[in-house]
Structures are given as structure tokens and as C-alpha cells.
Amino acid sequence: MTKTLPDLVPDAELNLPLERERTLNNGLTVIAIRRSAVPLVEVRLRIPFGRAPLAPATLLSQALLTGTGSMSSIDIAAELQAVGGSLAAGLDPDRLLISGNALADGLDRTLELLAGVLTGAAYPETEVATERERLGDHIQVALSQPGHLARVALLSRMYGAHPYAVQTPGPEEVRAVEPAALRELHADRVRPDGAVLVLVGDIDPEQAIDTAEKILGGWTGSAPDGTIPATPALETGPLLLVDRPGSVQSSLRIALPALTRTDPDYAALYLANLVFGGYFSSRWTENIREDKGYTYGSYSSIEHYVAGSALIAAAEVATEVTGPSLLETQYELGRIASLAPGEEELEQARRYALGALRLNMSTQAGLAGLASIYAGFGLRLDHLRDYSAALSAATREEVAAAAAKYLAPSRAVTVVLGDAERIEAQLAALTAVERSAA
Amino acid sequence: MAPRIKIPATKYPVERFTLGNGLRVVLSPDRSAPVVGVAVVYDVGIRSEPEGRTGFAHLFEHLMFQGSENLEKLAHFRHVQGAGGSFNGSTHLDYTDYFEVLPSGGLERALFLEADRMRGPRLTEENLRNQVDVVKEEIRVNVLNRPYGGFPWLKLPPVMFETFPNAHDGYGSFEDLESATVEDAQGFFDRYYACGNAVLSVAGDFDVAEATAMIERHFGDVPARPAPRLPDFFEPDLTAERRESYVDRIAPLPAVAGGWRVPDPIATFDDYLPFVVLAEVLTDGDASRLVERLVQRDRTATTLGGYIGFMGDEYQVRNPTALLLQAHLPPGGDADKVLRTIDEELDRLAADGLKPGELDRTQARMATRLLHGTDDVLGRALPMAVLELQRGRPELLNDLPKLISEVRAEQIVAAAATLRPERRASVEVIPGASA
């Protein structure tokens, strides 16, 4: 008995949530978005942090909530918890991001505690010493993780002398940072001018902005220009083989050039990447996982930083099939760069891209993340309308042209981390290999 | 002391019914976003796999994605993603779940796909060999090639438990995985993947009458097969402390995890819930007891976590299970000292009780985390399916924040008093990589 797959009901028009925005006198932009499904509020504060010194900035992100003139780290944590709240800070090469959530009734208290930290973080000696050791230990553990080591090698290979080349400090660099350096960095860079606060949840957006203005209005000042120069073009060269003796898998990483979100060809490139390796039903995954069983998962995505975008493809493959995995990867890149995608596979990727946008907008946390990331690039949620329209309109020819330009294997920068003794010959059969120690 | 914040609740509607073939259905409509989540859970997990077939429940989960009556290999993935959706499945100790989240227009397609594989997956030698390879790579990624792989969820059960169902490695040995056969898979499907042994749940943007009609249409003709008898995996509690250690050749720093048995999560839910709250009192955030003591004050631990259930699924696990504490230590850290300090803090809690506000704030944060989980359609569809499967009570998801807020200080103290060293099983990671 054969049964027929039911048709899809076409999507309704994209519906953006109620959103308000105001830039306060201190230069802080507040964006408030209503999604009232659960009585919570999501908080994202993005502070530009480009070119901040890496080790102190990383430690600052870990020690920011460890005390003010009037509160200990435990006081801050307990008071946040009392309104169902939690906040944490994280760093990337472009920004410091303080993120968390709380019960909606706890928004005022959460913002008061946040303001207390922004204007009065004390970086107490004892707490900083603790966080310094913890961070050093965490980095040491990261250095035993193949994914981290492969990324370190790839970034270095991609960016050379550019500030994006190194994104994690060494444990010894962290252990040398004194509290005074954190206080100085905080005074210099943790400033409202140019920062963006996103609030999403069961809130009245206008009222939430009033609240933020009242509570965060006393946070003042501007930071020196942290603009990062545009990323350099990728320089191709031999495959970089990073030795990790005893590794039972090889970490395959490929960087390719990419476009920024606002480029007219971005939607076409995004779709080309999906067809190649950007989702499970991609050629790459169907080939090296579902046909060959070389990997548990392969995935390619476009990563956006303020100073430039890049496409990164990643897979962990069995040591004994590292060469064959590279071969299939190069084949799939060559195929998408040389031949236009099929009509049906393009439509499938297009529907996936449009659906993923709706799924991402369906939760408070998804909206908050999206709004905060977009704000970092000067965009607002209404960009989703343009982007959806561009995804809907991209033609097969445009997708093929983007793939030919950006997914060509001749433009790839390739790094493989694994047991060099067991994989070097496999790789050298396919391409020139340059070996480095981990 | 600020007044205690009011703990809010969700009011997601819940409709339940059972099809003629015995399939239980839970519907929870909510039209706040144009997306739907569909989950099918089967009442079989790691604890039910046969001896000599470690990892089989998980391997079988992979085979459920390899085609079915009307679907070629790869079709499931393409149909879900081509509807704008995402999919996955996961294997737990007591159940296996399969799920999709899609724009609402894809609901009927998702139901079709789940019904088709409920009638029977395409079990072929080629697909089996392919997925054995994929699962081996999964184990390498998650266990063998990473520091602290399988710690503590695969490493502590064999210390704590005696019987095969509770103690064995649920990811499986390569030897067992490689010796799995198509006949094993067919037998496993026949025995456990009966519609009487499953729950279908749908949450999100749909009309109940329309969804009910779709469910009848697609699942109504799945042949009725009864559920197998639910096994009892009970084993007696420890009567003396158990300690083990192992060398992790990749890990650069030591770590330790300890576990204590807790009351039956289902038969004695009221006795169990205080342990769920206790785990948070001990470890949630910088103001929690053990983080304050071990991480901030003594600096004998770098990170600390506490939770119930080896897979962190405290409302979706059956007896026997455990409250777990795990700590990563600094270079040269002393696991024994960490365990002794934990004992000391538990004694202090049992003797002196909670501090003012300590329980209220923990309950408030737990409420936020629960509510946060339910904002996602799958964060409703999945737990409701399992709550129906294990308890016949999907609406419990709405009630949890309130039930947690009603746990009293004396119950926490009494729970803490049971976590004695002589009832504890622990496992220590000895770093094998140079620091």
C-alpha cells in the first residue's frame, strides 16, 4: 500500500513582534520586544569591545559580576536569583555580551543589579585571583579538546596578523593579569555610548525602555574607537596538518570567503551553502555520513564578525578515512562550484532557510539573540522581511554564481588536526601538506 | 529582605485521548508563534537493551531515520527540512524520543512521517552497517576523542549499580555494535515499538479538531500491538561507600562525581521533588552552598554541578536513579578532600537548616528555568509526551513551578540528611595528559 506525502500549507506572512527602540542620553540604545508566551524577560547587553587586550578582556568577562563597592559576588548572585534571574558575560573579538533572563516581575531588580555592576564593578583582589585560576584551568582543558585546537589553528591560518587571528589567551597570559588592569579596562571600555541593550519577553516595550532609562541613565561615558580593520582576503596554500598524536579522529576544517548579511548576493550564497553542507539534507552530509559513514556530522556555516564574514566547514572524521573524507569534501565543493544546483534541492534549501527564520523567532531567547546579533551589525528585526524576500527570490543562476565564486575548492584554506603519523600520507596523496605541531 | 517574588505558572491547554490501536495522544495548542512541535516517544531505552547488545537502543534510534514503509533512505530528513523544519531523536535510560519542529503548515507532513516509521522502518543490512559506522564516530566525538568523555553519565552507573540494565554502557562497546544484526533490529522493533507502547504529542500552532482528524488519518491504521510488560529495574541501595577511579588519557586536570540514590521519581513523587530542589540549593549559581564553599572559598573545585538523573532528565526518569554532584578540580586537586567537604556541608545543612531566603531564591530561579524551557514548542511537546508515557499526567508540566515553590525547608533538610557517605558511589578522573 502506497501512501502519499501530505502537501504543505503555505506559510502565512512573516509577522514581526511589537518592538520599540530608544537611544538614551548616555548613548545606550535600548530595544524592547514583546513576546508574552511565558512570564519571563530575556536580557542581552552588547558592548563594543574590538581591539581590547585579549587576556584582560577575557578575564574581565569572567570577573565582571564578582563584586561592587557595596555587594559581594554572592550578594549579586543571590539577589539575581531571588527574582529568578541570572546574568553572565562572554567575549568575542567584537563585543562583550552580558546575557541572562529573569521572571518578568524581576526586570527592574535585574537591571538595577546590572547597573550596579556596570557603574561599580570593583574587581576585588580575592575574587579576581579565584576567577584567574579558574579561567586558566578552563583554557587548559580547552587546549585538550580537538575542536578547540583545530579552530585555533584555522583562525591563525585565516587571519594571520589581523586581530581575529587569536581569540583565546594562553593560560599563562591570563595568570599574569592584575585586578588593576581589569579596573582600568572597565573604566576605558565598559561604557554606554554605542552599546545596545535588548529586552525581550512578557513586557510592555515602551514601559521597559522607560525602566531601563531610569535605571541605566546614570551609566555614562564613551569608549575609545575600537574599530577593527576589514579582514584580509584568505590566502590559500598547502593544507596545514596539525599533529595530535593518538587522536582517534581527524578534525577537518575548511575556510572559504563569504559575504556580509547585507550584500545583495548574500541570500544566494546562503542557499548555496545549505545545498553544499549547511544542513543535514546537504550533499556533504548525505555523502560522508549517510552514504559512507565517515563521520557523525559535518556542517558548514557562514560566520559573521563586524569586520568581515567567512564560511567555515567542519567535520570530525575517522582517522583511517581522513584522506577519503577530504576527497569527498573537495568533490562536493567542486560540484557545487561548477554545476548549478537542481531545482528541487534548491527549493528544499529555500524552504528550510525560510522555516529556520520562523523557528528562531518563535521563542523569547531566539528573538533576543537575533535582535542582539543584528544590532551588532546595525540591523533591526525588520531586516528579516528583506532577507526573507531575498531568500524567496534568489534564482538558480544566482545561487550557482555565488557558489562558483565563494565555494570553489581552489579558494579553500584547509586545516586538519589529527594523528599526523597515520594521516599525513593519506592527505599528501590529494594535496600539498605542511605539518605543524599542535 | 525583599518580599518573595510571586512564582508564575503557565496554563498551556492539554487534550488527551487514545486511538483505537492504543496510541496515546497529547495535544497542547498555543498560537503565539506560527510553529508546531511533534514528538513520538517509545517506552524503551538503554535499560531495556539485551546483554551482549550494549548501545542497541541508541543504534536502533538511528535506524528509525533510515527509511520506512513509504519512504526511501534520506527521505525523512529531506521532507522535514524541506518543510522548513528540524528533527532529531535521542535515547534515554527509560525512553526514546523522535521529534520535529516546523512552521505550522508542515504539521500534517510530520504526522505522516512519524506514522510511517511507527508502522515499520526499513531495516536493511546496508543501512545497519552504515549507521554502525556513524554511531562509532558519534562515540569517538563524544567519548573517546574528547577529555572527560562520558563523565560521569557512563562512568558512574557501573560503580553505583549491580545489574546489567542499570550499570552498563548505554553508548555501547564497538564489539557489541558491530555484531548487531538486522534480525536483532526487527526483534527490537517488534517487541518495543508497538503503538500501545508509544505516545504522540503535538504542541504549538494548530487547531485541535483539525489535528485530531489528521492524527486519525495517519496513525489510525497503524496495527494495534500491545505494550510489553514494563520491567522493574529496582535494585537495593548501597550499604557501604563505593569509590572508583580511572585514567582519562586526554584530560589535563582531575575531576570527581558522586551520586546517591533518591526516592522513586514516579511512585513517590512528593518525596522525590525535595531532592530535585536540593540539587539546586547545593549547586545553582555562585550563591549556592557548594559553589560558595568549594569554588569561591576553598578553591578546591573549578566548576561544580548538581542534578538528578544520569542524563539530567529529572522529570523523565524512572526508578532507580540518583542525585549527582560533579566537580572539576584545579591542577593537583584532591578529590577526597572535595568529597569530604561536600559531606561537611551536607551535615551542616542537615543540622543548621537553610539560611533566610535561600530556598525562596532557589525556587524562583528553578521556575525561570522551567518556564524558559516551555517557551519552545519542543520544550512542551517532548516533556508532555514523556510525562504522559510515564505518569499519564502531561499537565504536570504546567504545575511544576508551583509544586517546586511548595517544597518546604524541612523537606530539603530531611533530604540532605539522607546523602550520607556510606550511601555514596563516586568516581574520580585521574588526568592522563600532562598539565
From TrEMBL, chain A:
Pfam families, sorted: Peptidase_M16 (PF00675), Peptidase_M16_C (PF05193)
InterPro entries: Metalloenz_LuxS/M16, MPP/UQCRC_Complex, Pept_M16_N, Peptidase_M16_C
Domain Peptidase M16 C-terminal: 178-351
Gene3D superfamilies per UniProt: Metalloenzyme, LuxS/M16 peptidase-like (3.30.830.10)
Domain Peptidase M16 N-terminal: 58-171
PANTHER family (UniProt xref): METALLOPROTEASE, PROCESSING PROTEASE
Protein name: Insulinase family protein
Protein source organism: Actinoplanes flavus
TrEMBL record, chain B:
Keywords attached to this entry: Hydrolase, Metalloprotease, Protease, Zinc
Domain Peptidase M16 N-terminal, first and last residues per copy: 24-141
Family: Belongs to the peptidase M16 family.
Top-rank taxon: Bacteria
Entry-linked Pfam families: Peptidase_M16, Peptidase_M16_C
InterPro entries linked: Metalloenz_LuxS/M16, Pept_M16_N, Peptidase_M16, Peptidase_M16_C
Name the UniProt record assigns to this protein: Insulinase family protein
Domain Peptidase M16 C-terminal: 180-365
Species name: Actinoplanes flavus
